[in-house]
Amino acid sequence: MSYDFDTVVARRGSGSLKWDLCEEGMLPMWVADMDFPAPPEVINALRQRAGHGIYGYTPVPDSYYAACQGWMQKRHGWDIRREWIVPTPGVLPAISLAVQAYTRPGDKIIIQPPVYHPFRKIIRDNGRQLVENPLKLKGNRYEMDCEHLKNLFDERTRVLILCSPHNPVGRVWSREELQGLVSLCINDDILIIADEIHADLIMAGHGHTPAALVSNEAARHVITCTAASKTFNLAGLSCSNLIIEDNRLRNIYTTLLNSMWIGWPNVFGLAATEAAYTSGEPWLEALLAYLKANYDFLATCLPRSLPGIQVFPLEGTYLAWLDFRSLGMSDDELNERILKKAGVWLDQGSMFGTGGAGFQRINIACPRQVLQEGLKRIVDAFIM
Ligand SMILES: Cc1ncc(COP(=O)(O)O)c(C=O)c1O
């Protein structure tokens, strides 16, 4: 079956955060959702569920767990048991709850900026101390700084939030890199919250390794956030899963989750996730090929038209990281050009914290003609 990623679907006025927050005439290439309809199998499953007409209390069905287990095994070689799966109403709520479950106010939590900005907010909003282990930039490749990390551990340090693959720099961490990180954390009894929401969006030639799989002991120190939401464009359905192998860690988490009565995702999130994990693989393969072609277009076109702009290699996610530093402009000046003059909404690098100034993040999960239009506007804004 072939899938159509070229057709432009009008999203303005459809209740889309990405489009409806954007002034008329502007092109949104910011927040991480895709301008593609979900796979036909998912749309059919939702139609079928909606067509039943009764949406009463819905426990998580066996078929849902089986679909999640099947997907993890097939895509990531991870044999998970049904009881390890803890359904949650989204990855950010799941992380915020994990912060509350495993740490106390004033404890230290490490992040590795530039990184997905809500991590910072979750830590601060929960009254925990933010500690940074900035990524190291070597040429055009980001690495985790394990030497620096060791020095951050003290008696108040409890948790590290790992973004894997890493939004916004596009790295897919290798097994060796993860082994290094995980073994350091195990030595100092630091819990890793592994946000692997982008784990299915891996470019050819790279492979995602679940952090919980890198060693025998890892499972006792890693809890993993997963979802079909980025992969199949279902973010509005608020459905995700934590995978927690360790009984003690899982009990602590589910006690808190149950005390809030939020352990059951909504009925449509369940139906869509199950259909996506059961039948969405051919669509995902086609999507990945399309995204790769979009990335190749971006990586060829932008530096050719605007010499000095660097497009970072995209190993995973559909969020490409662009380096504008050679232009010598401040973030305000860059914003003036890109947002105001070009009328294209990218995410400013500084939003992602330390190391982000002078960079921009572009979402390339859109029909090619939209990407072309966005890039043309950006190029024109700098040369005209
Ligand atoms: C790394 C990462 N984690 C979490 C989220 C949000 O997840 P959710 O919508 O399930 O809360 C995003 C969305 O962009 C993300 O990029």
Summarize the structure.
This protein has helices at residues 17-20, 40-52, 62-76, 91-102, 118-125, 146-150, 175-187, 229-232, 247-259, 267-279, 281-305, 331-341, 368-383; strands at 27-28, 85-88, 108-111, 129-132, 136-138, 141-143, 157-163, 191-195, 222-226, 240-243, 310-311, 319-323, 344-345, 347-348, 359-363. The chain starts with 16 loop residues before the first helix and ends with a helix. The longest helix has 25 residues, at 281-305.
Kindly report how far apart the N and C termini lie.
44 Å
Q: pLDDT below 50 for ≥5 consecutive residues: which ranges?
A: none
Radius of gyration: 21 Å
What is the CATH homology-level superfamily of the largest domain?
A: Type I PLP-dependent aspartate aminotransferase-like (Major domain)
The chain-level structural class is alpha/beta
CATH architecture of the largest domain: 3-Layer(aba) Sandwich
The neighbouring-strand order within the major sheet is 2-10-9-8-7-3-4
Count structural domains: 2
Mean pLDDT reading: 97
In helices, the fraction of residues equals 25-40%
Name every ligand kind in the structure. Answer: pyridoxal-5'-phosphate
Percent strand equals 5-15%
Overall spatial form? globular
Order of helices and strands: HEHHEHEHEEEHEHEEHEHHHEEHEEEH
